């Protein structure tokens, strides 16, 4: 007998199951058999029964297909039937792969269509992969035919066409006939190998039930299943004549609703004058149930084809009464609802088949929340804030009471980790931790070790890129295997960066990858490791040996670490060659396990268990399929990749935390709060594109057929009826780039329309009842309304952004106690101001020591210096960034450094010529050649024929530049130490020191680059120091500390020589005597002191642009400043500078900073001269 228990709440089904087990217990050693659709339902049921009884034991949970196959096998009484079904999708794949490659198929013209698919590949391995992929798709199709079209299988088995079947209205078409013909023939070949399939086995099992009563269990419970193929229901019905079958079924509606239609179906029926459909309202009932519940409606219709004992257990939403078990043959009473929220009213409308639109009313509360966002990240952030408010409002709410579902959890997992899994430093009393678990993730996406194992299988096709191999070393299992620490890996990263290793094992490997007869050895592991190894052997200096620049960076005990690295590369190279060999499944198992043992410390970790299980599955399926052929690596890789891509529904589901998971059918577990994210048009309901040879998709659907779209629509309905307190629905209603409206999912729009017409909600594009989140978390709107945000850091950023529009000089995220008001520096500022603003650690000293280089770095970027020195903030990339791509263009910095080296060679040679007589041309050429050769072999420049031409050009440029410097600047250059002492009003002193490059009667600076703001400031500062020193010497305040300082007495100006590589011209800039140098120097020191306490907007680059514009007689307005701030043509505009953006998120007000800029830089640009050459 089949006992059917429909209920609208899963908790009531649980109570009934518990009562039945108590009233009618099994024998002491008999197991209760409960069939569930997925491990998630098993986990909830087990926990709930344990909570109900205090313990849950002696229960065997099973999945439907596996359980029914084993039961049919035991009843059929045939020892030849294998324990593992040879017609399961996994085994059938390998049987089909063997058949598709056999002569029986390839020689038969009937199979021309499937054979052509994989035989057109020129590579044998590629052909084997496509044959396996075709077999995988066919296996899935045949499994669907077995379950949903058993008559087709029976017809093919009897060598008949499915078009000849009675009651099968199949359209005849040329393409369809051809597909049906070869699929039928292929099935006949499968039956020829193994005659037992689920259809025939079920027929034999039904016939043998009378003889096998003693082997049948006393009772079988099917729990929470809302869809099952008619074939399985037929077998279950046959079983029910001998044993008890208990079907616990979640039914959203109390009334019979098997004949209701969706509004679309009803309109079509009325328009076609179908009898019995005169009124849309009577045909539809509740529109949500009619539209979303097709799958459940069809399953209910299938169940009612059998003889049932129906025991209804329904309860109105919002009721607090406990459901008691009904007497046999009676219906359970429906307790009345106490207070009904909007969510409860929705559930009751569905329960009673009521259409609220027929009697509209005003009802709004927060039991249903619909949120529109710009991105998936904002969806998660908005949910996090809303959940915090729920915890504040309900002291009994716990994290385990919350379920969050997404169409694809992998799309949201990174954002969940970022928002919910916060670092402890980000947690305070206002933002308590919300523990969460992410279920249904695929192993290869969730587990780095498994992802690394998949990458290892790609070694034969790998470029051996440096970043991938270093990332492999960071795996704990590999670190343990080779005794590597994190410091060791950082050191290895530094070595490979210095050795210019980018990709490729060696010269031959690069040639194979690029498809060339011969490749270069540049940038390969062989070249880089050879440089490191020979550098370790040769000593402490860079040496060019046998056309290689040796690297002496490995010292002492680090030689062992270098040896470990070479061993790892050697092993990976060996496995790369071995992986290319095809072998049978058992040999693959031995080899892959050996590879794991040699590269990792294999422990009992769950990840290693998953890997070994996957490898064992390969052997198991091939064994059951009698597949003993050699398998290509590409096929093994495809099998394992597919295996690890499957979601693991048993892990991290309901572990006492907020549960994030994918939307999986038949897992309608009740929670106090259910949230559904990602309800976007085109993404949910999910759709699966049918294959071009899928007969199910090409013919009319039948009662009981399942589809991805139908599953998702019913999933959404189950989410509505499974939420107990609140239902949170979120979608991306705005485009994050254009802010244009985006449509919600069709199922969400149907719910929104129902709320609008039935309950008076305003849910249009700008509806008041949609919670519209701003695009940015620091927006002021994010901290307003019913559910304001909690994160104070975003709030401070938002406040700073808003106030920055009025006061651009306010700093960001720095308390006002730390930042003093900006002092406007005028012409009357003197040295006393510098002492007043000097940092506290300098104020207590008699003499504060400052080097000119500190001032130059400060005025180049004051905000950066303040962030680094006072706040310890470094926005630059501090870790070594390994590049997988070899250089194809000359790096600007590297080319500049090379030009500087070449220039120094020629200048040093000129100095020697002045001291010791004419230097031999061969000596100069030899030194220059050595510099160029070292640069070429260092791996910092492209390995291209044009690189040599670049070197020659830079050499000629440097030689020409050196001649100009010598001719215009004079000879006998000297570096003279200079120190000036500035007295302060409080009695303290500032000592400012530098080295002055004296050349003739001027200071000479030069760079192999065009002149920039920092160069002008360098010249200006040193001219000021020189003049102050000369004045103090003349006044007797200081004395000569060295003989060479006498040279300074005759120096009159400061010149800078610069070579512009674009124009190929040398430019000279000069400062002569500057009026009142003490005052100008005091202003610079005062600004430097002020910049230790706050961020200043007095960048030399900004000042240069300002005076360049105003120097032409033009004005520089706030609008001009904003254009410059966001200059899209600049390499990096000020707005893109991380330090500038940190302190000034929006363009500041120029007037707040203009007086300081003019005070500091105007004297400099007034005195600056450009000398014609």
UniProtKB/TrEMBL annotation:
<dbReference type="GO" id="GO:0000724">
    <property type="term" value="P:double-strand break repair via homologous recombination"/>
</dbReference>
<dbReference type="InterPro" id="IPR011335">
    <property type="entry name" value="Restrct_endonuc-II-like"/>
</dbReference>
<comment type="similarity">
    <text>Belongs to the RecC family.</text>
</comment>
<feature type="region of interest" description="Disordered">
    <location>
        <begin position="824"/>
        <end position="846"/>
    </location>
</feature>
<keyword id="KW-0547">Nucleotide-binding</keyword>
<dbReference type="GO" id="GO:0003678">
    <property type="term" value="F:DNA helicase activity"/>
</dbReference>
<dbReference type="InterPro" id="IPR006697">
    <property type="entry name" value="RecC"/>
</dbReference>
<dbReference type="GO" id="GO:0009338">
    <property type="term" value="C:exodeoxyribonuclease V complex"/>
</dbReference>
<keyword id="KW-0234">DNA repair</keyword>
<keyword id="KW-0269">Exonuclease</keyword>
<feature type="domain" description="RecC C-terminal">
    <location>
        <begin position="848"/>
        <end position="1107"/>
    </location>
</feature>
<keyword id="KW-0067">ATP-binding</keyword>
<dbReference type="Pfam" id="PF04257">
    <property type="entry name" value="Exonuc_V_gamma"/>
</dbReference>
<dbReference type="GO" id="GO:0008854">
    <property type="term" value="F:exodeoxyribonuclease V activity"/>
</dbReference>
<comment type="subunit">
    <text>Heterotrimer of RecB, RecC and RecD. All subunits contribute to DNA-binding.</text>
</comment>
<feature type="compositionally biased region" description="Polar residues">
    <location>
        <begin position="824"/>
        <end position="834"/>
    </location>
</feature>
<dbReference type="Pfam" id="PF17946">
    <property type="entry name" value="RecC_C"/>
</dbReference>
<dbReference type="InterPro" id="IPR013986">
    <property type="entry name" value="DExx_box_DNA_helicase_dom_sf"/>
</dbReference>
<dbReference type="InterPro" id="IPR041500">
    <property type="entry name" value="RecC_C"/>
</dbReference>
<comment type="function">
    <text>A helicase/nuclease that prepares dsDNA breaks (DSB) for recombinational DNA repair. Binds to DSBs and unwinds DNA via a highly rapid and processive ATP-dependent bidirectional helicase activity. Unwinds dsDNA until it encounters a Chi (crossover hotspot instigator) sequence from the 3' direction. Cuts ssDNA a few nucleotides 3' to the Chi site. The properties and activities of the enzyme are changed at Chi. The Chi-altered holoenzyme produces a long 3'-ssDNA overhang and facilitates RecA-binding to the ssDNA for homologous DNA recombination and repair.</text>
</comment>
<protein>
    <recommendedName>
        <fullName>RecBCD enzyme subunit RecC</fullName>
    </recommendedName>
</protein>
<keyword id="KW-0378">Hydrolase</keyword>
<keyword id="KW-0238">DNA-binding</keyword>
<keyword id="KW-0227">DNA damage</keyword>
<dbReference type="GO" id="GO:0005524">
    <property type="term" value="F:ATP binding"/>
</dbReference>
<keyword id="KW-0347">Helicase</keyword>
<dbReference type="InterPro" id="IPR027417">
    <property type="entry name" value="P-loop_NTPase"/>
</dbReference>
<dbReference type="GO" id="GO:0003677">
    <property type="term" value="F:DNA binding"/>
</dbReference>
<keyword id="KW-0540">Nuclease</keyword>
């Amino acid at each position: 007998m089949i006992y059917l228990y429909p209920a609208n709440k899963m908790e009531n089904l649980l109570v009934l199951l518990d009562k039945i087990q108590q009233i009618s217990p099994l024998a002491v050693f008999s197991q209760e058999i409960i069939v569930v659709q997925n491990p998630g339902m098993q986990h909830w049921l087990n926990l709930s029964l344990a909570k109900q009884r205090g313990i849950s034991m002696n229960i065997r949970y099973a999945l439907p297909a596996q359980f029914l196959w084993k039961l049919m096998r035991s009843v059929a009484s045939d020892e030849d039937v294998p324990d593992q079904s040879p017609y399961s999708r996994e085994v059938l794949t390998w049987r089909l792969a063997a058949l598709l490659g056999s002569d029986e198929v390839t020689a038969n013209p009937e199979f021309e269509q499937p054979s052509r698919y994989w035989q057109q590949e020129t590579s044998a391995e590629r052909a084997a992969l496509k044959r396996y992929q075709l077999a995988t798709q066919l296996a899935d199709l045949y499994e669907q035919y077995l379950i949903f079209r058993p008559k087709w299988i029976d017809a093919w088995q009897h060598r008949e066409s499915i078009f000849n079947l009675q009651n099968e209205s199949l359209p005849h078409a040329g393409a369809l006939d051809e597909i049906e013909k070869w699929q039928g023939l292929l099935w006949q070949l499968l039956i020829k190998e193994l005659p037992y399939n689920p259809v025939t086995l079920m027929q034999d099992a039904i016939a043998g039930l009378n003889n096998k009563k003693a082997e049948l269990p006393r009772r079988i419970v099917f729990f929470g299943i809302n869809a099952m193929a008619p074939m399985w229901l037929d077998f279950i019905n046959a079983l029910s004549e001998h044993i008890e079958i208990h079907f616990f079924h979640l039914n959203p509606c109390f009334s019979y609703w098997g004949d209701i239609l969706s509004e679309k179906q009803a309109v079509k029926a009325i328009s076609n004058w179908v009898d019995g459909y005169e009124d849309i309202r009577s045909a539809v009932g509740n529109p949500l149930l009619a539209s979303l519940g097709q799958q459940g409606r069809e399953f209910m219709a299938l169940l009612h084809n059998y003889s049932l004992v129906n025991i209804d257990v329904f309860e109105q939403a919002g009721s607090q009464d406990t459901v008691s078990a009904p007497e046999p043959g009676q219906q359970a009473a429906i307790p009345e609802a106490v207070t009904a929220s909007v969510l409860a009213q929705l559930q009751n409308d569905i329960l009673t088949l009521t259409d609220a639109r027929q009697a509209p009313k005003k009802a709004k509360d927060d039991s249903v929340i619909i949120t529109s966002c710009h991105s998936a990240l904002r969806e998660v952030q908005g949910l996090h804030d809303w959940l915090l408010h729920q915890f504040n409002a309900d002291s009994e709410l716990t994290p385990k009471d919350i379920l969050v579902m997404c169409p694809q959890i992998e799309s949201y997992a990174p954002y969940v980790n970022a928002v919910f899994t916060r670092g402890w430093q980000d947690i305070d009393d206002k933002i308590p931790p919300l523990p969460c678990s992410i279920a249904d993730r695929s192993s290869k996406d969730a587990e780095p070790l498994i992802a690394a194992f998949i990458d290892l299988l790609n070694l034969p096709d790998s470029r051996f890129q440096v970043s991938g191999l270093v990332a492999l070393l960071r795996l704990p299992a590999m670190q343990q295997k080779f005794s590597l620490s994190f410091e060791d890996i950082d050191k290895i990263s530094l070595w490979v960066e210095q050795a210019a290793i980018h990709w490729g094992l060696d010269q031959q490997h690069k040639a194979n990858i690029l498809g060339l007869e011969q490749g270069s050895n540049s940038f390969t592991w062989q070249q880089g490791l050879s440089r490191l190894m020979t550098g370790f052997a040769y000593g402490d200096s860079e040496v060019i040996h046998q056309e290689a620049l040796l690297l002496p960076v490995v010292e002492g005990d680090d030689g062992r670490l270098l040896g470990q690295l070479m061993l790892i590369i050697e092993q990976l190279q060996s496995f790369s060659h071995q992986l290319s060999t095809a072998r049978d499944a058992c040999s693959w198992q031995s080899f892959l396990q050996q590879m794991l043992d040699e590269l990792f410390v294999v422990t009992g970790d769950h990840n290693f268990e998953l890997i070994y299980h996957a490898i064992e599955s390969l052997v198991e399926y091939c064994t059951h399929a009698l597949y003993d052929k050699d398998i290509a690596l590409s096929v093994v890789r495809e099998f394992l990749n597919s295996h690890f891509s499957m979601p693991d529904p048993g892990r991290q589901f309901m572990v006492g935390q907020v549960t994030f998971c994918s939307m999986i059918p038949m897992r309608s577990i009740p929670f106090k709060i259910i949230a559904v994210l990602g309800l976007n048009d085109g993404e949910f309901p999910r759709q699966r594109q049918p294959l071009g040879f899928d007969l199910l998709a090409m013919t009319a659907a039948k009662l009981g057929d399942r589809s991805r779209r139908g599953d998702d629509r019913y999933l959404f309905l189950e989410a509505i009826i499974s939420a107990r307190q609140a239902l949170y629905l979120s979608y991306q209603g705005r485009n994050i780039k254009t802010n244009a409206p985006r449509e919600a999912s069709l199922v969400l729009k149907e719910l929104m329309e129902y709320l609008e017409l039935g309950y008076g909600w305003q849910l249009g594009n700008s509806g008041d009842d949609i919670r519209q989140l701003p695009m940015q978390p620091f927006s002021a709107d994010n901290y307003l309304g019913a559910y304001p945000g909690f994160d104070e850091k975003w709030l401070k950023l938002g406040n700073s952004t808003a106030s920055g529009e009025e006061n651009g000089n306010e700093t960001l995220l720095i308390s006002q106690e730390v930042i003093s008001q900006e002092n406007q520096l005028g012409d009357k500022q003197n040295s006393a101001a510098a002492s007043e603003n000097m940092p506290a650690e300098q104020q207590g000293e008699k003499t504060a020591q400052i080097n000119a280089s500190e001032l130059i770095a400060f005025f180049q970027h004051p905000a950066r210096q303040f962030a680094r020195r006072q706040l310890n903030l470094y926005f630059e990339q501090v870790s070594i960034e390994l590049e997988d791509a070899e250089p194809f263009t000359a790096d600007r910095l590297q080319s500049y450094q090379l030009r500087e080296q070449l220039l120094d060679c020629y200048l040093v040679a000129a100095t020697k010529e002045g001291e010791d007589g004419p230097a031999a041309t061969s000596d100069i050429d030899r030194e220059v050649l050595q510099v160029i050769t070292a640069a070429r072999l260092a791996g910092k420049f492209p390995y291209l024929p044009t690189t040599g031409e670049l070197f020659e050009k830079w050499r000629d440029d440097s030689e020409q530049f050196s001649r100009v410097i010598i001719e215009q600047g004079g000879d006998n250059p000297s570096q003279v130490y200079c120190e000036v002492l500035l007295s302060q009003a409080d009695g303290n002193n500032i000592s400012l020191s530098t080295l002055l490059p004296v050349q003739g009667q001027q200071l000479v600076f030069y760079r192999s680059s065009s002149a920039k703001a920092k160069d002008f400031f360098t010249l200006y500062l040193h001219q000021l120091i020189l003049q102050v020193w000369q004045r103090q010497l003349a006044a007797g305040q200081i004395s000569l500390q060295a003989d060479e300082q006498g040279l300074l007495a005759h120096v009159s100006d400061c010149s800078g020589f610069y070579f512009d590589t674009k124009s190929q011209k040398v430019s000279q800039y000069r400062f002569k005597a500057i009026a009142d140098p003490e005052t100008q120097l005091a202003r610079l020191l005062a600004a430097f002191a002020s910049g230790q306490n706050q961020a200043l907007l007095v960048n030399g680059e900004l000042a240069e642009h300002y005076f360049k514009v105003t120097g032409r007689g033009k004005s520089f307005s706030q609008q001009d400043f904003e254009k410059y701030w966001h200059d899209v043509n600049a390499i990096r505009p000020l707005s893109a500078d991380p330090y500038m953006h940190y302190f000034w998120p929006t363009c500041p007000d120029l007037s707040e900073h203009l007086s300081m800029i003019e005070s500091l830089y105007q004297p400099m640009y007034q005195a600056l001269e450009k000398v014609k050459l």
